[in-house]
Design brief:
By secondary structure, the protein is α+β, with helices and mostly antiparallel strands. The protein has one domain. The protein contains three helices and ten strands. α2 (64-70) packs across α3. The longest helix has 11 residues, at 39-49.
Length: 146
């Protein structure tokens, strides 16, 4: 998934290419888990502070190098495309997404463009996780401590 910093959209380094869990919720609706410590959560927070939706481009069928970089924790202003280029020893090829104009991995088989709607949250899951356990919707009515 590709997103841009809403306050600095032309900064190539602050563009994010990441891998995020998604859930099909309807014909034209996906659920997404923007983990708080990931760049997309920061992009979403900045968009929500401005009262805006966050444009995104979901890319499927990508080059394994960009998939690896999307899963690699980098500094906020480090480009996944530049790191992928370093691994290839040549600039990573990118294309322009038709709706958002985002830089997307060249050769992606499918590009889905849309927005993360500002301040809309829903229960997700349950999901089978890598630990062999399920995660999903939880409701906690009260917390206690000593």
């Amino acid at each position: 998934m590709v997103s841009r910093d809403p306050l600095d959209p032309d900064n190539f380094g602050k563009q994010n290419v990441g891998i995020y869990r998604m859930e099909v919720k309807g014909k034209r609706k996906l659920g997404l888990q923007p983990v708080p410590m990931h760049d997309i959560a920061l992009h979403l927070h900045k968009a929500e502070e401005r009262g805006e939706d966050l444009p995104i481009a979901i890319t499927l069928g990508n080059d394994p190098i960009i998939t690896l970089m999307g899963a690699t924790p980098l500094k906020y202003d480090q480009s996944e495309y530049e790191m992928a280029g370093a691994l290839r020893e040549s600039p990573y090829p990118i294309a322009t997404a038709p709706l958002t104009g985002f830089d997307v991995p060249w050769g992606s088989e499918v590009i889905l463009e849309g927005v993360i709607e500002s301040r809309k949250r829903e229960i997700e899951g349950p999901f089978g996780e890598f630990t062999g356990h399920y995660s999903g919707g939880r409701k906690h009515d009260r917390g206690a401590h000593r």
